């Protein structure tokens, strides 16, 4: 389930946003202050953040800048929420690294459309769309993986891992990044856990001749590469 962090000090607005996101199948965490938002980010990296501009203490803008300058949260999808509609603020927000903007008051329809658009662009694994690579098809809505008519027997963690690889192909992911993005909680799990699940994933893909899709990059991590599968 995709996780959205809502950072908003006005409780009524935060609740309304949370309600709508939950209705659409998202897991929602609400933070009412900048400090709370930061400790949430430190704990579990969400799939997307809805970030209010005007917060008591540190501003949303300052938080966005800080997250963008930290390697772990650099690619975090961020939508800024603001009551101001002036052009100069939009520019400042986008400069700070926001992916999109919502001006209050906004409709539920607009909120959901923006959330989906940003996820599609920056975190497609957080959406339910089916993915296909090298003849391998993964469908999050049915939780099925198959190649042509042959279904792949796969465990829940390997499924999530494969989903992440397939939505971020040809890029090297370190073990720490995979723990953050696939397990969602990097603090309590050892990095070698990733190796165990990658091994299981390859074993699961072997009956459909697709275990070569997952490549080990020495000293760096793992990558899903289509080239290797095509050559094999
Ligand atoms: Ca506010």
Descriptive tags:
binds calcium ion, Arc Repressor Mutant, subunit A, Rossmann fold, 9 helices, 11 strands, alpha/beta, 4-stranded antiparallel β-sheet, elongated, 232 residues, 5-stranded parallel β-sheet, 2 domains
Counted beta strands: 11
**Which strands sit side by side, in order, in the main sheet?**
2-1-3-4-5
Taking the alpha carbons of the first and last residues, their distance comes to 34 Å
Q: In total, how many domains does the architecture comprise?
A: 2
Q: Tell the overall outline.
A: elongated
Briefly, what CATH class of the largest domain? Alpha Beta
Structural write-up:
The protein is of the alpha/beta class. It is built from nine helices and eleven strands. It has helices at residues 11-23, 34-43, 60-68, 87-95, 108-122, 156-167, 175-183, 192-205, 226-231; strands at residues 3-7, 27-31, 48-52, 78-82, 100-103, 131-133, 136-139, 144-147, 150-151, 214-217, 221-224. Strand 6 (131-133) and strand 7 (136-139) form a beta hairpin. Helix 6 crosses helix 7. The chain is elongated. The structure holds calcium ion. Residues 9-10, 52, 54-55 line the site of calcium ion. Calcium ion binds at residues 9-10, 52, 54-55.
In a few lines, what is going on in this structure?
By secondary structure, the chain is of the alpha/beta class. The chain is 42% helix and 19% strand. β6 (131-133) and β7 (136-139) form a beta hairpin.
Spell out the blueprint of helices and strands.
Elements: E1 3-7, H1 11-23, E2 27-31, H2 34-43, E3 48-52, H3 60-68, E4 78-82, H4 87-95, E5 100-103, H5 108-122, E6 131-133, E7 136-139, E8 144-147, E9 150-151, H6 156-167, H7 175-183, H8 192-205, E10 214-217, E11 221-224, H9 226-231
Parallel strand pairs: 1-2, 1-3, 3-4, 4-5
Antiparallel strand pairs: 6-7, 7-8, 8-9, 10-11
The site of calcium ion has 5 residues, from loops.
């Amino acid at each position: 389930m995709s996780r959205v962090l809502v950072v908003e000090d006005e409780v009524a607005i935060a609740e309304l946003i949370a309600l709508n996101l939950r209705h659409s199948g998202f897991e929602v965490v609400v933070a009412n202050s900048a400090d709370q938002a930061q400790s949430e980010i430190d704990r579990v990296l969400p799939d997307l953040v809805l970030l209010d501009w005007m917060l008591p203490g540190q501003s949303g803008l300052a938080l966005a800048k800080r997250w963008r300058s930290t390697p772990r949260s650099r690619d975090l999808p961020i939508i800024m929420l603001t009551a101001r509609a002036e052009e100069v603020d939009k520019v400042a927000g986008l400069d700070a690294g926001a992916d999109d903007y919502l001006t209050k008051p906004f409709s539920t329809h607009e909120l959901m459309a923006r959330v989906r658009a940003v996820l599609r662009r920056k975190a497609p694994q957080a959406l339910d769309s089916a993915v296909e690579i090298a003849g391998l098809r993964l469908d999050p809505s049915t939780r099925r993986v198959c190649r042509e008519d042959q279904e792949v027997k796969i465990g829940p963690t390997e499924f999530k891992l494969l989903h992440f690889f397939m939505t971020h192909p040809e890029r090297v992911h370190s073990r720490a990044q995979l723990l953050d993005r696939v397990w969602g909680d990097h603090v309590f799990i050892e990095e070698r856990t990733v190796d165990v699940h990658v091994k299981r994933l390859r074993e699961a893909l072997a009956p459909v001749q697709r275990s070569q899709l997952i490549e080990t990059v020495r000293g760096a991590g793992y990558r899903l590469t289509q080239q290797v599968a095509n050559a094999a």
